[in-house]
Amino acid sequence: MLGMRLLLAAGLVAGATGFGVGPALKSRAAASSTRLFDAAGGASEPQYYQGARVGPPPDLPSLLLHNRIVYIGMPLVPAVTELIIAQLLYLNYEDARRPITLYINSPGTVTPDGRMAGFETEAFAIADTINYIRPPVHTVCVGQAFGAAAMLLAQGKKGERSALPNATIMLHQPRSMARGQASDIAIKAREVLANRKVTCELIATATGKTTEQIMTDASRTKYLSPEEAIEYGLIDKVMQPAERKARPSFLDSLMIGD
What we know:
alpha/beta, seven-stranded mixed beta sheet, globular
């Protein structure tokens, strides 16, 4: 370590004073810095054995992001919202013209067993970001889009909102687990009703229906098949296997077959 520090110091001094550093010294400094970088867990060139890539698995979220794919596969909790918004903003400033594909497989703001997991404001933040950024967002439902996730599905670009054949879409009212004094519960109840109105207004704008009709339909749990969701206006088409997206470029570099 001391030797490495001396080599780096020699390079800095040479650069500052104008005196050259010999090729051998430069080579040793570069090799030492590379070893330290790798030992610290930094990135290194992928290794191949008989034509197959070996080593740790690639960072899949980064590979998907490289191909402008964002995936929501969990309930809408703050950590998920933070990541999704950051990815959308990054892709917006990377290229404001190329579309973004948002895959959704989420129970919304509740867990699969019906317990509260997040607040509707998490979904509002993602919806506002989708409408704020310049690239068109193509939404695809895979598996499920319940409650607030169904609202996000409808926020995609008109004509580019789709679902896979066996996906399920569901509308329902926001839920509250308010506890405490009666006055606190009343305050929380007003907030839940306000969130319900905002959710229904966003769905109404996306589907072309009235807010009152959406509120009536969502007053009780309403399940929709992909075909029913098309008729309702939440999506525009059912994506069949023959219509799958083009092969991502990173698969070629990883030498992964079909």
